[in-house]
Amino acid sequence: MLTACSTIGVAHEERIDACHSAPRSEQLSGTGTVPAVVMSYAADERVFGQGMPRRFVYKVKSGVVRTFTLLGDGRRQIDAFHFPDDVFGLELNDDHSLSAEAVAATQLLVFQRSLIDRAAENNCAMAQELLSLTGRTLERTRAQVVLSRRSAIERLANFLLNLGSRVGTETSVDLPMSRYDIADYLGLTIETVSRMLSELERIDAIVLTTTRHIVFRDRVKLTVLSNPPMG
Amino acid sequence: MLTACSTIGVAHEERIDACHSAPRSEQLSGTGTVPAVVMSYAADERVFGQGMPRRFVYKVKSGVVRTFTLLGDGRRQIDAFHFPDDVFGLELNDDHSLSAEAVAATQLLVFQRSLIDRAAENNCAMAQELLSLTGRTLERTRAQVVLSRRSAIERLANFLLNLGSRVGTETSVDLPMSRYDIADYLGLTIETVSRMLSELERIDAIVLTTTRHIVFRDRVKLTVLSNPPMG
DNA sequence: CGCTAGCTTGAATGACGTCAAAGCGAGTGG
DNA sequence: CCACTCGCTTTGACGTCATTCAAGCTAGCG
């Protein structure tokens, strides 16, 4: 009955509507619970699309999601990768200004936007939570602006360290995303990403055991390159 | 009694504390009023500094303010210019992550942060307003990330059009800020800004009647260059 | 074993930054 | 009123770094 038509960009929402499993009370963040259902997405499956009505808010249960903007010239700016416990789909307007896709097999908690909005109108704690989430997103986006002025190798070092702190161990990290994804996130080309990874390996900062698995060999070198802004 | 020591970065706040003029009820945004006092700032005078306790929230009454980050290597990333009716100094943390300075002679409405926070705890409408302001800031910051992938001339065309829509007329705009400010906002050097302005003049998109006054000669050319992202 | 998609590597191009010098304009003092 | 000066701006020559174009390579899979 439900054919594979994720490219149309609506099927996933029909699937959510058709999901008759009982919503469970789940935390969006911090305090307060809201009913939510769990949905599964295959790699590269669309979650929502730019310009579509913003009916749901999402929280990653497992897997990874990318949110991105498609530019006029066909290029793609990846806004953020969302890992377990991250909330996304929370915006100001009634329509999405970004698109979202699963990077790998992913499970999401799906909240009705109307329920969250209603909760925020009656309950200042919920409104504060939304403010806090948006504020944190703003901080990360500002950091991205600052990063975008730095060199390719610095951006990549910073990216690997951040990724490691989210989904890696002390000594290594598995890249859930392709070189294309990394390039579109950092504002580089896949060739440059590849070259800089090779360069990081050449200076013994990392080892690429496979194309998707990175071992941190010298965190200090990475940290110096990542060189966070300060006053 | 109060010596000129704005470089220390505290004098301005002492001045606010010492201001015994009766606070008037003022709108932060939309609905709801909060007591505020008016403060005047000279060109380049500091409003607050990175790392300082975040005691106030500001709204521009007249003039222009720049908020910026100082990077480890001494470079400066201007985060935003704030024009009349813009609110700034609203962040997530208890300390400022940005610095703020007047670009030109400026008057600000100064609100106590504690009053605003208290209002937001008891009054969901105020909390919603803060959320809306932060959301709008986030949108602008995202647009900056997207812009930072584009060429120098495109960034500049986009900047001039945005500036024109805020403080210009149909046909012209006065630049309140220096080439340094523009460069640090767009992530370019002053030389490149200057070259691109000359280039825009060469292709008859604008005319620079003085270094600070720009006449729009062909808005279409600017718009095509500015070429907003779309899906 | 060969195919394909994703990744890596190389060489040439181009955009912006850097360094250097000259131009311009507003304020100052003669 | 004019010459001088200082800071900002413009312009030029050149270097650097990321992109582009073009092969090759590798790993997963039929």
UniProtKB/TrEMBL annotation, chains A, B:
Check the record and name the InterPro entries matching this protein: cNMP-bd_dom (IPR000595), cNMP-bd_dom_sf (IPR018490), Env_Response_Regulators (IPR050397), HTH_CRP (IPR012318), RmlC-like_jellyroll (IPR014710), Tscrpt_reg_HTH_Crp-type_CS (IPR018335), WH-like_DNA-bd_sf (IPR036388), WH_DNA-bd_sf (IPR036390)
Superkingdom of this entry's organism? Bacteria
Swiss-Prot/TrEMBL keywords: DNA-binding, Transcription, Transcription regulation
Q: Report whether Secreted shows up as a keyword of the record.
A: no
Q: Ranges for the HTH crp-type domain?
A: 150-220
Q: Which PANTHER family match?
A: CRP FAMILY TRANSCRIPTIONAL REGULATORY PROTEIN, FUMARATE AND NITRATE REDUCTION REGULATORY PROTEIN
- Please report the name of this protein according to its UniProt entry: Helix-turn-helix domain-containing protein
